[in-house]
Recover the amino acids of this structure.
């Protein structure tokens, strides 16, 4: 039986790639590390990642000339200048190391085959001679929004291969993993985080875990979109809501929500961007390749926000294909041939066969854009430490580190989980090695008592309130219809008011099942208010941001506005407040001045100050927003020339 209070040096909430890689770094530095996970780590959402992981190795002909600087430029352009440019640099420089390390852990990367290789590029079949001396090196495929082929891949099961390899390291290092355990609140004293209150999903028992350092690695919040997401059913965003509940730690850019162009219709299962990277086309009901006209340069391989908008526009213009489940478009990969599909895109082939009953070598794939990735999350500094709370860190999709800004490039998330896991893990280990475990048991038992009371109150509640599952479904409908790809003020206002109504209803929701132990309805009822608060934060952030940037597109404010909105949204939720308060900080030090992304619209409202003037204000503004000092000074990882601009 679990005691009511356990301790460790480093507590990682989440057993996906980011959490596990972070725990490995801490354990390798001699810290006692413990991982909590809703599911056995190998079932984490990271396992579903398909198409690839970006790292500028430059190993094949179409990757020649690639390097971390080009990767950095692509990432900032992809973010629509919403990214923290120092973090984007650290990321691009470390990504090649992370990919090679995975090879060392055992990931079977797809390799260069020296000699003649057949590829499809911009709709044409081409033959390229790969250098014989590169034979056997990790190869790359093309992905959206990149200047070079950069995505390293293991067929279309990259996440699966990576997670199994990283998890094997966790086992090898003897790191304690407690699965089917959910962190339900943070233990803190207003300045420092001391661990979490956790709930065993098997028994319903709640207990405190006290730690010198606590890391949130809980993944994205896609499930606030109900079933309209490619995310796993465990992507509730609980880590972000735990941070929000402190009233101290802000969430960053929650309105920045990515829609992936090609989810299988109607199930929403992802069909990787690797299909378009390998030469797949999008077609409308007339079989036209509408992306060629819409984006003559990048075609199907513009960034995801741009492609998703063109697809929705195509459907809204009446060129979608009617089906009993709504309109969709076609993804055509037939020309790649069965051999390619059953090797380099094997997982796509299997998904099409098993979930749509089609053979993509002969049939086109019905697809439509669907919620996919959370750019927003727990706002942290470049060490991964949360604003306003010492000893609390965040990594991976749960964090707003913030290298993605308002649009993540395909393949940059897997790379982020491993790079941030390494970088932040090292900082966490340093912090823990210099910290004393503050086993303030009264703090822990107070938090435990409050958590017990919450569960008891839910079980005891009577009346005719709706079920939490009905309210969850209603939330999904509001989010997809009013806080989706195309947003406007009237819809967002109505979404805000409807979500407030759902929050009210949730406070009266009555459980159908009153068992105290392994009760999934109780577990969901405990986490759902947090999901509603995240949804309101997304909708209010989107309503307030009167511009279009990356995945946040306002039809009533269609231009990117660098004069007024070159900033990051911060959302706090004060205890007992009925809504978040929003504030803003500059995105970070700018090395690459705002410009055209190279795809999408070139119209924007320009900054009215110089980059130097902008940069001068950044450090103070972020500090007063709660950014804690990083181990190395802010800007130290920018090249000298860019630091001089500050
Ligand atoms: C279908 C699909 C394909 C993708 N393909 C790619 C790709 O090819 N390339 C790419 O770069 N990106 C891809 N992505 C995105 C990428 O997979 C994710 O962003 C990334 O894996 C997230 O990793 P993570 O470790 O941050 O979180 P996750 O892998 O989501 O892990 C979260 C962990 O937190 C645990 N957890 C959550 N809440 C709690 C709690 N309260 N208490 C305890 N534990 C908790 C969960 O059990 C889980 O272990 C894809 C995403 C999807 C949906």
């Amino acid at each position: 039986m679990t005691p009511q209070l356990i301790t460790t040096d480093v507590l990682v909430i989440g057993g996906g790639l980011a959490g596990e890689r972070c725990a490995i770094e801490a354990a390798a530095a001699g810290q006692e590390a413990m991982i909590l996970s809703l599911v056995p780590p190998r079932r984490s959402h990271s396992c579903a990642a398909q198409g690839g992981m970006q790292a500028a190795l430059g190993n094949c002909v179409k990757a020649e000339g690639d390097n971390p600087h080009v990767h950095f430029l692509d990432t900032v352009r992809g973010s629509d200048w919403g990214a923290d440019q120092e973090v984007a640099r650290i990321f691009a420089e470390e990504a090649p190391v992370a990919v090679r390390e995975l090879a060392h852990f055992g990931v079977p990367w797809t390799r260069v085959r020296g000699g003649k290789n057949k590829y499809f590029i911009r709709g044409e079949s081409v033959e390229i001679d790969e250098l014989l001396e590169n034979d056997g090196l990790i190869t790359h495929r093309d992905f959206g929004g990149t200047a070079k082929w950069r995505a390293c891949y293991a067929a279309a099961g990259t996440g699966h291969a990576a997670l199994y390899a990283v998890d094997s390291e966790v086992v090898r290092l003897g790191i304690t993993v407690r699965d089917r355990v959910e962190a339900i609140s943070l233990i803190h004293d207003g300045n420092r985080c001391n661990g979490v209150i956790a709930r065993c999903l098997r028994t319903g028992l709640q207990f405190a875990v006290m730690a010198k350092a606590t890391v949130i690695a809980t993944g994205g919040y896609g499930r606030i979109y109900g079933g309209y997401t490619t995310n796993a059913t465990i992507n509730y965003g609980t880590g972000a809501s735990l941070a929000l509940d402190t009233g101290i730690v802000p969430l960053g850019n929650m309105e920045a929500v990515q829609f992936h162009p090609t989810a299988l219709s109607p199930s929403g299962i992802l069909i990787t961007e690797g299909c378009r990277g390998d030469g797949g086309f999008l077609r409308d009901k007339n079989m036209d390749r509408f992306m060629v006209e819409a984006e003559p340069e990048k075609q199907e391989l513009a960034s995801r926000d741009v492609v998703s908008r063109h697809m929705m526009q195509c459907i809204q213009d009446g060129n979608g294909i009617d089906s009993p489940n709504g309109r969709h478009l076609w993804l055509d990969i037939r020309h790649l041939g069965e051999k390619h599909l059953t090797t380099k895109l094997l997982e796509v082939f299997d998904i099409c066969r098993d979930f749509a009953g089609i053979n993509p070598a002969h049939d086109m794939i019905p697809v439509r854009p669907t919620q996919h990735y959370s750019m927003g999350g727990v706002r942290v500094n470049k060490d991964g430490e949360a604003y306003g709370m010492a000893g609390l860190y965040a990594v991976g999709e749960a964090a707003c580190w913030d290298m993605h800004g308002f649009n993540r490039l395909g393949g940059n998330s897997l790379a982020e989980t491993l790079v941030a896991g390494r970088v932040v893990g090292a900082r966490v280990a340093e912090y823990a090695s210099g910290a004393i475990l503050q086993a303030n048991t009264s703090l822990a038992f107070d938090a435990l008592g409050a958590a017990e009371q919450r569960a008891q109150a839910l079980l005891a509640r009577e009346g005719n309130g709706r079920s939490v599952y009905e309210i969850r479904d209603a939330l999904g409908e509001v989010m997809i219809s009013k806080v989706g790809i195309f947003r406007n003020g009237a819809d967002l206002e109505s979404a805000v008011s409807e979500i407030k109504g759902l929050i009210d209803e949730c406070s009266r929701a009555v459980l159908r099942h009153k068992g105290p132990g392994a009760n999934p309805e109780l577990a969901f009822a405990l986490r759902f208010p947090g999901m509603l608060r995240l949804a309101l934060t997304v909708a209010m952030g989107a309503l307030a941001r009167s511009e279009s940037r990356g995945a946040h597109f306002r039809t009533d404010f269609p231009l990117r506005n660098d004069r007024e909105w070159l900033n990051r949204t911060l959302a706090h939720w004060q205890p007992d407040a009925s809504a978040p308060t929003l504030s803003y900080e500059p995105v970070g030090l700018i090395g690459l001045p705002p410009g055209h992304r190279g795809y999408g619209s070139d119209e924007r409202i320009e900054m009215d100050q110089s980059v130097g003037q902008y940069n001068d204000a950044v450090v103070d503004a972020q500090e007063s927003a709660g950014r804690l000092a990083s181990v190395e000074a802010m800007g130290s990882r920018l090249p000298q020339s860019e630091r001089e601009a500050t």
Observations:
- The CA atoms of residues 50 and 157 lie 5 Å apart.
- Residues 520-544 form the longest helix (25 residues).
- The longest strand covers residues 206-216.
- The radius of gyration is 23 Å.
